[in-house]
Design goal:
Layout (H helix, E strand, L loop, with lengths): L20 H12 L1 H17 L28 H22 L8 H10 L11 H5 L4 H10 L2 H6 L3 H19 L4 E6 L13 E5 L4 E3 L6 E3 H9 L6 E2 L1 H10 L6 H9 L5 E8 L2 E5 L8 E5 H15 L1
Antiparallel strand pairs: 1-2, 3-4, 5-8, 6-7, 6-8
């Protein structure tokens, strides 16, 4: 006859427990990481608050850029995951404390010191952050550390599997907020309202995602179709060598800088004009106006050569 199984992973259990030793260990590790993750999130959010539009210092392309960017984070990053974390951790600390007829020692010097120590544990490769250490230990951090001190009681709690799932989901969201996966910019939402006005909200998709949804109007899109639409007509746009290097990489045809210059010297890609910048802005001209002007090339020409060389290399 089959004995009791772990409510989280299905492994056989010993007497009187609802979570196996491995799952309890994973749960304790996740709880122990909470202070450091929250400190990292504070650093990330502070950086976002200070950051503005970045400039390369090399001027802007005269042609509209293709909608292919690889970064960008929500400036409200982490707000929802922190709320979810607080709900899970503080709620379960209260529930366990009630069952044990005790009160979580939030605010005591012992628990505050443990919390501060854990703030340094997540990133061994970086120097201690004085600002993070100076911040008072929050209730959710202290409750997380308090729970780590009750491994045995958690293993025997009838709702321990539910606790493990809720904490795992909350911590997973927190890790994603601290180090989110790469996202790809896919242009502006073209969906029109009843008045015929386009939504215009930025569309993003996580790396390798098949579908995405506009966060403003909720319109669903297939990522491949958005990319195809973005390329329609784009091959006739003109870019400098520096811009072509970036675009070819983002379009899946990376080319070394030396190779692209060689194509230009060999006229495998022909110059289509000059990129000139003055007090009126940046524009494409059919002749060189100043020594700083850079030659521009048709994106479609560079793509055609890159695809041909890629096919010959296979």
């Amino acid at each position: 006859m089959t004995g009791p199984l772990c409510g989280e992973c299905g492994r056989p259990l010993g007497d009187g427990v609802t979570l196996c030793k491995e799952c309890v260990g994973n749960l304790i590790e996740q709880l122990a990481d909470v202070p450091a993750l929250l400190a990292e999130l504070a650093i990330v959010r502070a950086g976002l608050a200070r950051s503005g539009p970045r400039s390369s210092g090399a001027g802007r392309p005269a042609e509209p850029p293709l909608p292919v960017r690889l970064d960008g984070r929500d400036r409200r990053a982490g707000e929802r995951v922190v709320l979810r974390l607080e709900t899970a951790v503080i709620g379960w600390a209260r529930a366990l404390a009630e069952d044990l007829h005790v009160c979580p020692a939030v605010g005591t010097a012992y628990l505050v010191d443990l919390t501060q120590e854990r703030r340094l544990a997540f990133r061994a490769d970086r120097r201690p952050d004085a600002a993070a250490l100076a911040e008072p230990a929050t209730p959710v951090e202290q409750c997380a550390i308090w729970l780590t001190r009750h491994r045995r009681e958690i293993a025997r709690h009838e709702a321990a599997p539910e606790l493990a799932r809720e904490v795992a989901a909350a911590v997973r969201g927190l890790r994603r907020a601290v180090a989110p996966p790469p996202r790809e910019y896919l242009g502006l939402c073209p969906r029109k309202d009843d008045a015929g006005q386009p939504c215009g909200h930025e569309l993003w998709a996580e790396d390798r995602a098949v579908q995405t949804v506009c966060r403003r109007c909720g319109a669903p899109y297939v990522v491949a179709e958005l990319k195809s639409a973005a390329l329609t007509g784009a091959e006739d746009r003109h870019y400098s060598v520096a811009d072509l290097l970036r675009l070819l990489t983002e379009l899946g045809h990376p080319v070394p800088r030396s190779t692209l210059y060689r194509w230009a010297q060999q006229r495998r890609i022909a110059p289509r004009g000059w990129q000139h910048t003055d007090e009126r802005g940046t524009r494409i001209t059919d002749h060189q106006i100043s020594p700083e002007d850079r030659q521009v090339y048709r994106l479609g020409d560079a793509l055609a050569v890159a695809r041909k060389e890629g096919a010959e290399a296979v």
